Amino acid sequence: MKITVIGAGNVGATTAFRLAEKQLARELVLLDVVEGIPQGKALDMYESGPVGLFDTKVTGSNDYADTANSDIVVITAGLPRKPGMSREDLLMMNAGIVREVTRRIMEHSKNPIIVVVSNPLDIMTFVAWKQSGLPKERVIGMAGVLDSARFRSFIAMELGVSMQDVTACVLGGHGDAMVPVVKYTTVAGIPIADLIPADRIAELVERTRTGGAEIVNYLKQGSAFYAPAASVVEMVESIVLDRKRVLTCAVSLDGEYGIDGTFVGVPVKLGKNGVEQVYEIKLDQSDLDLLQKSAVIVDDNCKMLEAPFT
Ligand SMILES: NC(=O)C1=CN([C@@H]2O[C@H](COP(=O)(O)OP(=O)(O)OC[C@H]3O[C@@H](n4cnc5c(N)ncnc54)[C@H](O)[C@@H]3O)[C@@H](O)[C@H]2O)C=CC1
Ligand SMILES: O=C([O-])CC(=O)C(=O)O
Fold this sequence. Notes:
Belongs to the LDH/MDH superfamily. MDH type 3 family. This protein is an alpha/beta fold. Helix 1 (10-21) links the parallel strand 1 (2-6) and strand 2 (27-31). It contains 10 helices and 14 strands. It is globular, with a radius of gyration of 19 Å. The protein has 2 domains: 2-141, NAD(P)-binding Rossmann-like Domain (Rossmann fold, 3-Layer(aba) Sandwich), CATH 3.40.50.720; 144-307, Lactate dehydrogenase/glycoside hydrolase, family 4, C-terminal (L-2-Hydroxyisocaproate Dehydrogenase, Chain A, domain 2, Alpha-Beta Complex), CATH 3.90.110.10. Residues 6-12, 32-34, 76-81, 90, 94, 97, 100-101, 117-119, 121, 142-143, 146, 174, 222-225, 228 line the site of 1,4-dihydronicotinamide adenine dinucleotide (NAI).
């Protein structure tokens, strides 16, 4: 198994380190445009192996030839936002980067599974899919796992219970219009509506929607990376080990939820072939409306991008 992580910044490097520690690949390549950074970080990670008890071969590079025959490629290249910015403010800049990165990846790997992280997430996943020419099952955006993790952690904090027992469902685009679905959010199977007053749930939902901005406002210079990296690794692990985890990921829908051809977050089964099943769960009309509205926002942004994809 060979995994490449493009972008050796906060998310990319943290992801690579977690992947190495979990030994999810024999070979792990960290690539960036900046010379020295991926080499230095990769060597530093590799040197932690004797103490961290892993022996994944981690290398850093600025040359796509070193990514040849990757089974999985994680794209984290691109600018992060600063306080006051929306993720959509990154659209034009990051679309160019993701398009170019994808083009270069595909020159050296025939049939990789691509996990996209760069923002605005759903639109960048569309860009990577279009540019790659890969089947839609092999281009997957990471956001729902992170958004659900944030909702889960806020609920655990609220109730003073283990996060392990909290499951949450957050659908839709990775923006302020994301859709935390309260009905499918439980603590050991108990709906949170039975445990937390409605007005407080509404506050936790709002905190989840603005969870990314909350971190940006603290950090000032960039955005979250520990929880995002952990979320990427959960997806990659399910693919590498063919675990068939059911995780919310940004995938291209084919009429499910009345949405056609747009990438948005829905529950999917992730295995060795990428997206192996899309689940169309029963939603209340109000949640379905919100999901469709969030897909329209993604769609409108995709339309702002100019073709051609070559
Ligand atoms: N989907 C999600 O839930 C999340 C998405 N993000 C997004 O991930 C992206 C990366 O975030 P960070 O790692 O915090 O940013 P960062 O600034 O720490 O790292 C980005 C890296 O990309 C590199 N890069 C830029 N252009 C490149 C190119 N053409 N080829 C290769 N590398 C290139 C930069 O040199 C830099 O090292 C941002 O767009 C951010 O908004 C971040 C957190 C969560
Ligand atoms: O907020 C950001 O810009 C980064 C991100 O997507 C997140 O942390 O959810």
